[in-house]
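Fill in residues.
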């Protein structure tokens, strides 16, 4: 046999022997939950995410309901799912942690991570907003349940960003109806933006579009009220001046002549 072929046979034999002697990952073989937890965490840290998921899932089934190791297992199970891009499974794991252990030190962390996982599932404001709503509700739950959490600032930042995305979604829908001359529908969406998301710049833009819609259907009183609000809230805004013009000059009634 040629030397090259002999070397190839030897390499293949070593590979086959290694495959035969290696043992597949089996979380059920561990006799201790603590050992399974440590090994699952070690595999997560080494990038063996599927093994980690299998280990932590087994722990969530085997651990007693009040075992504090259960909250850690749910936390790392969520992290492992997130690592794989399985955002909905990650959010569910983090939510289970908070629901089962609301007083755990990881509870507010889990809510923040659950909100972020839901948010990743809402990639564009034009898409169905169900996961965006879940994210917003989750961040608001964090603020309500854990008002002193050090994660409060990050949750508030996410809420502001989500509100901007929701405002854009409603604003764009209003513009769509406005272009089609469906003024009543457009007005409803623009009013929703102003009412629900006053902290966003889309509130200003929606009010400007309201003026445009009111002009189109000759709703003079509504137009004047909207312009008055715009002038008060944005006194130096060029678009406001262009759309609304200068405010009307108040006239004073002539004083009555003195009584004889």
């Amino acid at each position: 046999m040629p030397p090259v072929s002999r070397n190839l046979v030897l390499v293949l034999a070593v590979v086959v022997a290694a495959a035969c002697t290696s043992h597949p990952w089996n979380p059920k073989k561990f006799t201790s939950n603590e050992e399974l937890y440590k090994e699952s965490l070690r595999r997560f840290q080494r990038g063996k995410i599927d093994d980690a998921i299998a280990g932590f899932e087994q722990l969530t089934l085997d651990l007693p309901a009040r075992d504090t190791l259960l909250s850690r297992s749910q936390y790392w199970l969520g992290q492992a799912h997130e690592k794989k891009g399985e955002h909905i499974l990650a959010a569910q794991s983090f939510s289970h942690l908070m629901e089962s252990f609301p007083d755990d030190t990881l509870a507010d962390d889990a809510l923040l991570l659950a909100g972020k996982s839901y948010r990743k599932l809402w990639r564009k404001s034009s898409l169905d907003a169900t996961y965006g709503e879940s994210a917003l509700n989750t961040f608001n739950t964090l603020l309500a349940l854990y008002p002193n959490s050090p994660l409060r600032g990050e949750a508030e930042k996410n809420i502001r960003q989500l509100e901007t995305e929701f405002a854009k979604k409603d604003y764009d829908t209003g513009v769509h109806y406005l272009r089609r001359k469906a003024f009543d529908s457009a007005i409803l969406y623009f009013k929703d933006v102003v009412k629900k998301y006053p902290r966003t710049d889309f509130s200003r833009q929606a009010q400007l579009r309201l003026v445009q819609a009111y002009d189109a259907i000759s709703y003079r009183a509504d137009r004047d009220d909207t312009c008055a609000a715009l002038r008060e809230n944005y006194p130096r805004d060029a678009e406001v001046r262009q759309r609304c013009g200068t405010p009307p000059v108040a006239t004073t009634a002539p004083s009555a002549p003195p009584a004889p």
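The chain has a mean pLDDT of 89.
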